Queue: 3 jobs
Job 1
Amino acid sequence: MNKLSPLQKVRYTYVPKLPKMLRNGILEISVKEGEETTSVRDQLKIKELFPNTYGKKEIVFEKGNNTSTPKKQIVGVILSGGQAPGGHNVVSGLYDALKATNKENELYGFKNGPSGLINDDFIIFTDEYIDQFRNTGGFDIIGSGRTKLESVEQFALVEKVCHKHGITALVIIGGDDSNTNAAVLAEYFAANNSNIQVIGCPKTIDGDLKNEDIECSFGFDTATKTYSELIGNIQRDANSAKKYWHFIKVMGRSASHVALECALKCQPNICLISEEVAAKKMSLSQIANYIADSVEYRGNKGMNFGVAIIPEGVVEFVPEFSSLIHEINELLAGSKADSFNALANWKEKYNFIEKGLSKESMEVFKILPESIQQQLFLERDPHGNVQVSLIESEKLFSSIVKDILETRKANGTYKGKFNALHHFFGYEGRCAFPSNFDADYCYSLGYNAFMLIQYGYNGYLSKVSNLSKPADEWIAGGMPITKMMNIERRHGEDKPVIKKALVELEGKPFKYFEAHRDVWSKETAYTYPGAVQYYGPSEICDITTETLALEKGE
């Protein structure tokens, strides 16, 4: 048996807090139904695709007589996609609610994500097994995977496996793509009278699965607190050594919620927001000059150090860079990739590239450091496209900034010294011990998911809101997944998907950041969040994210 750390031993015994209405006891939880819902966009198309699950009502749980029909429930659960702190507590909460309703109820955990459902690979949870994972990070309780459930053949296999074991409901714990798949699977079951419910739970550390109903996806709180601790440590080191600029890339391929939250927590000199870059159509040169202005001002004041936060996917939001990537994807389409890869050295490959790119894209390509140029031609994704996440954007910007500063030094405007160090914080935050907020929130999501099952709902997302308040005041309920959906073009086809939530440039969190960043860029205004706290005053260990507090005006 693996040796347990002292924290791990103690966290096993932590009792997550539930919303008040979920603490009333299973027999005293009733349902209040709200208005019928419509999708966020493309209502006619979404309704046509989901005739059996579209337009359902939002619901809230409250104190009252439980009117659900008592019956034995056998439930399946999967973890889908990348890890996020708190996943184990979703499973624990689901298990505890299921057993509190009827000791004969069973929970099947399908291994390694959706593929476990297709391959009929599972475990049946017991108290002893569940207790090993309570309040811990990771998805190792059953593993996760990125197989997508999207074909009729897959749905038929899942239906067969569920009927084989008498499974009456599935809980899919995942992000926007996983919950989109959950909605499609729920529609299939409804259309085929399969008598199997599907309930989703909102997970992603990127924070882009949110809307007026989903205030926060689970894992975001813990991940940003973990990254902010590390950024704060680096800021303290920078302020001590006073000789390095640290360029720190953080998770966030499609949205900059993680970068913004870390900036609000730590007050670095620079933080790029991808959505702003796109809105202002900023070029690589404009971004680099913006950073260089801070370096120059501080360096001329004798402060040859600083910290810049770079979102993982920011280069995709730069119009000229996005065009370059598009042309590279076309340049290496099909068999042309084999011709390129067969070339003997980088010089030959460079000549191939120069002949294939437009003049405008080649001008962008030329200003990139050679290491970044080569990264653009690394292994492609399954669709043959550039893997933008492999691009070391933190090194890209520091390199261009260095060139700009050398020009300014030659012109006599810059008198400082510039030495850059680079970091990427990604996996460090995905499996951390969940914060008290995520431990409580996730347990509530799982517990609440079973209540949705008990009351017979299908195609719903487990919803816990009022999250900026103490857990006692949280509101539990559910919303149809179709409410969050729109139509997007994916791989040449129109697909129903959950609309990603990007940073709102008119939202309170960004506006606060925008109002303070000029001062932060010039002064050393660092804050040091420190490690995630689990024990002590609630204002320290149960504190919510800066983003959520600002959104709620607190």
Note: The first helix runs from residue 6 to 12.
Job 2
Amino acid sequence: MSTKSSGARKGILGIFLLTVLLSGVFSLTGVFSSLDRLLYDLFLNIRIAWNPMPINPRIILVDINDSSRNEMEDAINSGRAFADLLSVLGDCDSAGAVDIIFKNPLPDGGGLVKSTANMRNLILAVMPVPEVLTDFAHNEMDGRSREILAKNVWHIKETGKGSIPPARSFIMSNPEIAGLASQLGHIGVEHDADGIYRKTPLFYRWDDGVIPSLALAAAVTELRIDPSMIEFHPGKAVILPVSRGNNPVRIPVDESGYVRIPYTSRWKDNRYRVPFSQVVKAKNDEVLFEKLFNELTGSITLVADTGAGTKDFGVTPIEAVYPLSGISQAVMSGILNNFFYDDLDAGSKLLLLIVFAAASLVLGMLKKDTPFHIGFLVLFLVYSFLTYALWQWAYTAPWFGIVFFFMAFYWLSGFVFRLFFRYRRRLLFTNALTRYFPRALAERIGAQGKTDVLPAYKELSVLFSNISGFTRWSANREPKTVHAFLSDYLESMTALIFEHGGTVDKFMGDGILAFFGDPVKQEDHAERAVRTAVAMQKKIAELRNAWMPSININLRVRIGINSGSVLVGNLGTKTRIEYTVIGSPVNLGKRMESNAPPGGILVTADTRQRAGAYFSFGNKKLVMVEGCDEPIECYEVIF
């Protein structure tokens, strides 16, 4: 594995670990829970808008709305209306769940006690005072009230350690009425942190048992379930063992016994509502009674005050103004229909997180950008579809936030890292290229992302230069003096080579090897090489005048140029490689430099032929060079 590849993988792993850490931190802050709640609200509204589910037809809401209250305010205040209501429900053999607390003593003439005693099953509401509400003003229960409440405590089968909220006290109806009820059920509801009612507690702990919710108590009473047989599995479900031969009712709950409210339709679309005044009038109206008889017989009647004056309304996912008594109706309907929204269990959540985190890590390791982006897009779509499929067909609330954040953050961070890594690699590549090429050319090669660096034969011109007498001069000079002069000289010469589009192959002490025509093809490489040599000699004259007074160097430079087909590219071993030129034309160029006069430029006949139209040359010379049997024709450039 290359160093670059190893560095990239370490960076990706670092981003992965950072994503894991941030996911854990944000999870503790509740950010993901908020996102999941928003998505849950959206899905719920879509379902209700496109496929609303009716309330169980056995549940009838007797609605004490504003119209009923205005019509019979006196009868309501005296209790006579409630006495007549319960009398009609008793005659219709209807079970009743009354979401009203009768706190004051009632007149004997009202007949409420007698009507209550005649009811088949009557569930009366009690209001819990949670222990956390230490500043809640209320009257403590007297001995009689505590005795009645104790008779209504359930002793359910609890497996594991749950956290059912304890009650400090309860607000209940007049003991004379409460003592006649078949069961007492609490009407405590709690909204989420954002003020929206999505869950409701099924139990409040009291003494050595629990007080059930009004809805649960009514359903259990109607289904004739022994409360002692009810199972509470914290974080999983409350199991109601219905009659033999039927599947038990499973109510998904959290650790505290809170259930997701199974909203099925909007309040305005609730068809199972009967005005309170209509039922009360049926007491003395046979025609009206006959009309209601078939509708109420065998039903579970929920009596609730939904008048605006009660202020008993809240914000729900489906409506901004929703009677809280509708929550009892929804939960009761969910039990009878065996329909609730569930949550993913901890094991499934962990499995999903591991699978999609592992898939994200694999995608992050991909080298090419297109598969990287397409892979994450597919991953997002797969998880989104899976989330909606679980909701649509398994009625599972979305658990989306943390996985979505993990994939989104990891993808975005990986994308930024790729851009940075690519920029850094290009910058390093460009900086390395500036050793050989002009910066503008180096940046262009870097922007292309690659260049042909495999060894290949190409037509080039090579230039050699060497300072005459430099070894003798530098022998008795201070190193810092030699270094300062040589740095100035090499930098000046390199700038001229780059200015004419040349490539610096290497520095050999005071010598320079440069070539023209690669990596960018130059048809005029010979002309460029000669122009560079002329410019170098002119610059050398300036440097001689500048350095002579201080270091006493009579700067004279020999330059040799040859053109021909040479092998150029990355050459070397696995541990040492360089971009260079080799071949007999290179050697011949070196011979031209060694035979050139100090301060002169000597080129071969091949170079003169290629660039002759632009320069003046001296007479032909013949020089003998090592490795050649015949003398070599060459020319001195006149400038």
Note: The domain at 448-638 is CATH 3.30.70.1230 (Alpha-Beta Plaits).
Job 3
Amino acid sequence: MNRKQKNVLIRIIISLVLLIAIKTASAFSEIVCDYELIAYLIPYAIIGWDVLWKAIRNISRGQVFDENFLMAIATIGAMFTGEYIEGAAVMLFYQVGELFQSCAVGRSRKSIASLMNIRPDHANIERDGKLETVSPEDVNIGDTIVIKPGEKIPLDGVILDGSSTVDTAALTGESVPRDVLTGDDVVSGCINLSGVLKVRVTKRFGESTVAKILDLVENTGSKKAKSENFITKFARYYTPCVVVGAVLLAVLPPLITGGDWASWIHRALIFLVISCPCALVISVPLSFFGGIGGASRCGVLVKGGNYLEALAKTEIIVFDKTGTLTKGVFNVTAIHPDIISESELLEYAALAEHYSNHPISRSLKDAYDREIDTSRINDYAETAGRGVRAKIDSAVICAGNNKYMDEIGVKWHPCHHVGTTVHVAVNGEYAGHIVISDEVKSDAKDAISNLKKHGIKKTVMLTGDSKETAESIAASLGIDEVYSELMPADKVSNVEKLISEKSSDKTLAFVGDGINDAPVLARADIGIAMGAMGSDAAIEAADIVLMDDKPSKIADAIDISKRTLRIVYQNIVFALAVKAAVLALGALGIASMWAAVFADVGVSVIAILNAMRALHVKSK
């Protein structure tokens, strides 16, 4: 509880004690009864001065119809109609509700803000054999930093020397630490638990994983869900309407029937207290905020309430293959030469692919496992989604997939091995092919199965890989449809086709991790990116980021979104139903001011308690 909340609590306690003392004293002393108004104004002023001030200030700014205005008019009116204790008590209970709301919002915000603890305080940079402690913002790409046991990893990089265990819980929600060795990538925001690590920095702080996550966290509340926007608009028209209704209730009946003005004014004041829309205005955004906070604790970052709401309505999920359903760790599993030796075929392929950053290119270079003399490589050109062409020594080497061989007019032949086939042509003549296999992620099959249990009607896989490899993986995972040998633009057109097939009130989600997935992530109704090893472009284009690379987290995210929406709808129905019933009773003179207090503060507290359930998500 912060200082402001403590001050409100002290005022509540003082006012409550004074109200009990005045009520007790008035039962035994006629003097107190004679000065009841003055006596009750003291606790009323202590507990309600800030509400009255906010109402006056907002009126001066043209913001008349808000909860401060309603409470000020209702309680002041109660005082002047002789309902002293009711007027003071309504203000007291309103402040109790506001304090409860403030604590609930603070707790929800804290669950998301806990991610801010991943921000590193410093970096140990190695210069001239000595360590200097500097700000992470002052470290450049290529610098060597030293991370001691217990320190946060300040920047993304590659381990040059050392081995350790790294705690990734703050980023991924995973409780099991990860072992890292020389040559492994490490990301900022994790904690080095055991060994000393020497790391070569690969990204400036502003482009690092931790900086991007902090930016996401700070902006999660900027994009409201449709339900939130509806409640905002509803309150904008609802409040003036009930104020007009209260005025009519106070004026028309006594004018028409010649009835008791004091009785009808009292009913109108009760009507105002009941009509305060706090339960809706607070609980609905708090539910979404709680859902986002709960998801963040499981390693799922949602960029706004609108995306959480849309995720609950997902009907079709489309997956990229490499790095999403598979590990993206390719290994050469077969070398089939035609006119040259195995070693020559591998050498030509590795040299030709040297300048490419594609995982397949890296696997060829790893298999070659020799120093590459870049002076031998000339006239390099890469065709996205197809292959590469380079002049190696005096030979023109082309390496790529089936379509690339067709484009350059080289007759190729298929391979009986399942995997990604890289064909190699030397001076326009087919020289053989190399088979590279990618390992399916351990939780991928369970992820697809769980998604279907969560009501996903169709799962689809899009890939640039060969038809045989794609269909083999899709069948093993239980995916409904597969489209293979696709260019990046083909992925977008396939997603657009699938969007046209879904129900109008449902959404399509695309899951990917690579740079070439960014256009598809942006085009889909919901873009989900793999955050741990995903590309920066994919993470920025996505609406939801999985901070580990487990596709099984998608089902968890959908479960959280559906649970959050249920809580939102429960609060809307409950608040409107109770208010409608008590408003009718208040207009008929049946409901008292105490019933009005329950319809306002009581309903708000219950709705806020219900909204807080969205925070309680078990990390899996």
Note: The longest strand covers residues 326-337.
